[in-house]
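Students often ask why we bother encoding 3D structure as a string. The short answer is that it lets us treat folding as translation between two languages. Here is a chain of 276 residues written in the first language.
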Amino acid sequence: MEMRYSTHPEHAKHFTTEELRQHYLIQELFVPEEVKLVYTHEDRVIIGGIHPVNKSVALEGNDQIKAETFLERRELGVFNVGGSGTVKVDGETYELATKDCLYVGKGAKELIFESDSREKPAKFYIVSALAHTTYPTTKQSFADVPSESLGSQETANNRTLRRFIHDEGIQSCQLVMGMTTLENGSVWNSMPTHVHDRRMEVYFYFELDENARMFHLMGEPNETRHLVMKNDEAVISPPWSIHCGAATGSYTFIWGMAGENKTYKDMDQVAMSELR
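And here it is in the second language, the structure alphabet:
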């Protein structure tokens, strides 16, 4: 498991492009038959990818989190962004089609990930946060989750928001997760932008064309930086940082948050005039 440490905004102002990428960008999430994990000290969240192709893959505890099982003191959000697959939680099987979500509560011991087909294997994107109590393991299908239309074609940010794990949906200790899909011809997300100093956030971008690129904006509102990203990559956003971006084509992204509360609308809006 790779470790990423918290950074002060004053330090981030002086990072080179490569240093920004080393601190905040997560690449190569889906390696066949492996579990890729990144532990960030921003609210002690773990981000990862699990890509079973020819055999099942287990998510287990390790010495870095000093736990015999991965969810000994944690909760977990799972999104399948590949072909159909299954997640077995303590012997119970949950079938996940593309874009379906599964929440697994604290205390679950055995976690097994499998693909239904080698030709089109599943890709499980995961976000895990610390948990103090147990909430029931719950599946939410993409087809059944409520959606909300945001933005407009005129401002190139016509998008559909879907909340999966939140205070009025799947219950959790502190994890909040959802998905936003950009319509054809729209490229901007979360603009006008915001910060929320009470929790961190991580974006995972997918459904980008192979040759397309995402220009993800971060940093303090008056001291912005950018990262150039491609399909199936994630970016860590500290609580003091804005998080928004535009791509060279339409895309989908999964947002995950953890920290002080689960209120989705707890945001400090940033006026366009404040951006530098």
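Translate back mentally: The chain is about 5% helix and 45% strand. Keep this in mind for the problem set.
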